[in-house]
Amino acid sequence: MKQLLSGNEAIALGAYHAGLGVAAAYPGTPSTEILEAIACLRGVYAEWSPNEKVALDVAIGASWSGVRAMASMKHVGLNVAADPFFSVAYSGVGGGLVVITADDPGMHSSQNEQDNRHYARSAKVPLLEPADSQECYDFTRLAFELSERFNTPVLVRTTTRVAHSRTVVDVTGERPPLPEAKFRHDPGRFVLVPANARRLHPGVEARQQALAEYACSFPGNRVEAGDGRLGIVTSGVAYHYAREVFPEASLLKLGLSYPTPETLLRSFAASVRRLVVVEELDPIMEGEIKALGLAAEGKSIFPILGEFDLGVVEASARRAGLLAGDSAEALPAVPDVPLPPRPPVLCPGCPHRSTFYVLSLLGRRQKRADGSSQEPQLVIAGDIGCYTLGVLPPLGALDSCVSMGSSIGMALGAAKAGVKDKIVAVIGDSTFMHSGIAALVDVVYNQGNLTVVVLDNGTTAMTGHQENPATGVSALGQQTQAIDIANLARAVGVSDVREANAFDLPGLRRALKGAFDNPGASVVVVKGLCALRNKEPKRQAVVDAEKCNACGLCLRISCPAVVKGENGVTIDQNLCVGSVCQTLCGQVCAHDAIHLAEL
Amino acid sequence: MKLDLILAGVGGQGIVLAGDLLAEAALSIGLDVKKSDVFGMAQRGGSVTSVVRLARTVHSPLARPGQADYLLALEKLEAARNAGQLKPGGIAIVCDYAMPPLAVSSGSATYPSDEQVRAALAARAEKVHWLDGDGIARSLGNRKVVNVVMIGFLSRFLDLPDAAWQQALERHVPKRFLELNKEAFARGRAAAG
């Protein structure tokens, strides 16, 4: 049956039809929908793990119990899970073990554009690179077979364009009956003391050889014969760009791109006059082809930065003389009108807005009336989530954002370095559970003087509202123990723990100021449900034009619904959810000019 | 049929669903389809585009820059922003509706005038159709169906059977909103004459 599926949905269905028993993940764009899709399928245990390392550990435990298991994550998530990933490559598997990494060339929603094909090489694990949803479905099923046949975890790497595009899939499989789980007692493989690991390493190298040979006959590594003047080696979605831009060229498309299929590459290279590698991000296949002593071009033609598309590939090819004509046919120019950008912003009613407003005042981040900047106060270490948008003006209340859970450790580092300013770490509920908690333990253990502000909006919002250990609901929708963040902070030994309501500005301000005035370690948990999760009927705020004197105070909260007009402000009734945030704009108004509209 | 279509709007306007309906309708008559959303963190009110490509065989999930046959925009600024995606002789269908971004509502930037939007579109488009999609959606009692109103309008230009569209709606719209969305589709389609 033909279906239109995203790459992520196709991976979920492929795994399901391969007999997947256990799936674990931490949400991360563009990988999130894989586990969401699996959670809707009957008969698979699916969980949101607190972080990617735990997710992979869970999958390994299931695999060693004879069950096919999968861990899925975004590219930077594999950094977190790298420790078990490298080691399980020595131990091998019980039931098939598949790791999905969803890379993000172009950084649509990521802090870097690392190329996780490197991980396959450094961990000595085979790498499958689907180019569309059909291959996501087919390769995922195959990945489980390869995993068991070669006794290795298998890395399947997608990119945003593959993960999120919907393309046609011919769904041919069915779900097989699952084996009964039974733990395999095999300490020689599963207990990686040095003596065992030394004995296992030669097996890893031998497996590499066997896989390299297999890759030469793997049906997903195919030659599309062309006129032979130009030969293209490509993988992943870059294949589709190359195929469209070079319809005449000979083309070698690699689906199992590592271990390198040496014989296949050599025979393809011998069949063409000019060999060119079309790969997004790093020159990985190019490097390996050159290491075989073959003449090839790649990054001298195509960019190492950003995401490819037809325009990028075609323009690069023309510059290198791979296509006739110096440039594409010129298009009529569109008049150059300055168009205001539309970056993502904190939503109307967002519970994070009030915290950043208070931080922007205490930290002197708002501009003065004459437009000049103030001398910033406070060090505000930030973290990863919607609340990273607190960096945007006019709030400007964030000084760092590096990786999941980093805010607290970085704040501690600044404190121990001797910074005199008050130091604050701002972190979301899910990110706190991911890896913030370990750093909070460090703050207590090593007696850091700083305040941790946990923004608890009751969900993992940025990635599309997934549950997490603090929400009390599992990935499968079952009620579970909700971990109380304030009590957790007390339990690890923080004595000054405060809770505040995100929509009560005076109370929030008191809590934050009180914590900042305490020279020791403190935690403030700011609670307020994500506005997009609030399903109650909404009421809008309105401005009393008689009272508004156009002072602009309400514009400082940076709410999209507050609109500056000729003589004062108005509230956009289509955007405003004033009943959700208890009219934060009204709470900052010095003239009592903004209230909820009468029903 | 071989068509590239760009759907553009603002996060929250339902661009992704609009693209899904179009892609699903094309699939049901046996075409190869690829649909790709470009949204990043756009759930938070940013710009969103969805690219739908239909043909016997589609390779790239993204269209060639400046080669789209249709631009369907749910918002005027986003129409102007994507005007350069159209091929010369392409068709633009624009919802006559403005959502000023924060930079505009806070007074630090200006929203383009209707003349500027028209001029941007006229550079490539052979014909620009304007529709008060928001007004039609409001008259149906739910502004959120503006995406389906606009898709209904677009449907008049495409050679896809009505049953394909109805099937796509049934597949992608939750049951309790299905009748409303079918009505929205019909109203948009009727508006195209």
Structure characterization notes:
The longest helix of chain A is centred in the middle third of the chain and has 24 residues, at 194-217. Chain A folds into four domains: 2-215, 3-Layer(aba) Sandwich (Rossmann fold); 222-319, Rossmann fold; 352-533, Thiamin diphosphate (ThDP)-binding fold, Pyr/PP domains (Rossmann fold, 3-Layer(aba) Sandwich); 541-596, Alpha-Beta Plaits (2-Layer Sandwich), CATH 3.30.70.20. The radius of gyration of chain A is 27 Å and the shape is globular. In chain A, α11 (238-245) links the parallel β10 (230-235) and β11 (250-254). Chain A is α/β, with parallel strands linked by helices and 599 residues long. Chain A is built from 21 helices and 22 strands. In chain A, 55% of the residues are buried. With 193 residues, chain B is of the alpha/beta class. Chain B has one domain: 3-Layer(aba) Sandwich (Pyruvate-ferredoxin Oxidoreductase, domain 3), CATH 3.40.920. Chain B has helices at residues 15-27, 76-81, 102-105, 114-122, 133-139, 146-155, 162-172, 175-191, and strands at 3-10, 32-38, 47-55, 68-73, 86-95, 125-131. In chain B, strands 2-3-1-4-5-6 form a six-stranded mixed beta sheet, with helices on both faces. Chain B is globular. At the A-B interface, β8, α11, α14 and β20 of A face α1, β2, α2, α3 and α4 of B.
**What is the oligomer described by this structure?**
heterodimer
By CATH, the topology of the largest domain in chain A is Rossmann fold
Number of continuous helical runs of chain A = 21
Taken in chain order, the helices and strands of chain B follow as EHEEEHEHHEHHHH
- N- to C-terminal distance of chain A: 52 Å
The two chains with the largest interface, and their residue counts, are: A-B, 51 and 58 residues
Side by side, the strands of the main sheet of chain A go: 3-2-4-5-7-6-12
CATH topology-level fold name of chain B = Pyruvate-ferredoxin Oxidoreductase, domain 3
Give the integer mean of the pLDDT values of chain B: 95
Beta-strand percent range of chain A: 15-25%
Proportion of beta-strand residues of chain B = 15-25%
Strand order of the largest sheet of chain B: 2-3-1-4-5-6
Q: State the helix count of chain B.
A: 8
